[in-house]
């Protein structure tokens, strides 16, 4: 079993809809949680970075962390065709710099 | 403000050969990590360099080695290439050897092994 599980999709939504993404993890040592966006043939781009349980909002993006359930989510409001990409969750323990990634969810926003 | 830059963009090698990939970190960053991303999968951590030393290593064989220079740039070397080494190799940089700083990625080097 992988340490971080993420549905590979693809997730297809109409423009303007809310995109809901999530990851589950098994390692209780993970303390820092990130969401990255990756376009084809590009590197991952950091979207959200959180530490504690709860919500964090940045523009159209909201990240949620529930450490008790080992579950994190990313919501994208008012989705645009330019949001079509692969979304990767990543997490890290308190010690060390190693990021552990989910496999990524491919999202397609249709005009 | 220059981000993380990697070279070359693409590389084609044959089995058994050796390859060197290069990374320049984002301005102000002094820590470099390398990741391997196979097609359709998430990146896998190879190792991290800080103060010119390997500080942490993932589950990769000794064929994978690295180096960090005084200007914080880094190289990834892979010896005795295998077909399974075909992947996107990503470099990420961050500030300080501190776990509360996010990592920023370059666009990677796509390595194909024939």
- Quaternary state of the chains: heterodimer
Q: What helical percentage do the residues of chain A reach? A: under 10%
Calculate the terminal CA-CA distance of chain B, rounded to whole Å: 37 Å
SSE string of chain B: EEEEEEEEEEE
Total DSSP E strands of chain A: 11
User: Major sheet of chain B, described briefly?
Assistant: 7 strands, mixed
What is the mean pLDDT of chain B? Answer: 95
What keyword list fits this structure?
heterodimer; A: 111 residues; mainly beta; six-stranded mixed sheet; five-stranded antiparallel sheet; 11 strands; 57% strand; B: 114 residues; four-stranded antiparallel sheet
Task: Tell me about this structure.
The complex is a heterodimer of chains A (111) and B (114). Chain A has 111 residues and is mostly beta strands. Chain A is built from no helices and 11 strands. In chain A, the strands form 2 sheets. In chain A, strands 2, 4, 5, 9, 10 and 11 form a 6-stranded mixed β-sheet that branches. A 5-stranded antiparallel β-sheet of chain A has the order 1-3-8-7-6, with no helix packed on it. Chain B has strands at residues 5-7, 10-13, 19-24, 31-37, 44-50, 53-57, 64-68, 74-78, 87-94, 104-105, 109-113. In chain B, strands 2, 4, 5, 6, 9, 10 and 11 form a 7-stranded mixed β-sheet that branches. The chains are: A mainly beta (111), B mainly beta (114). The interface between A and B is medium-sized, with 30 and 29 residues.
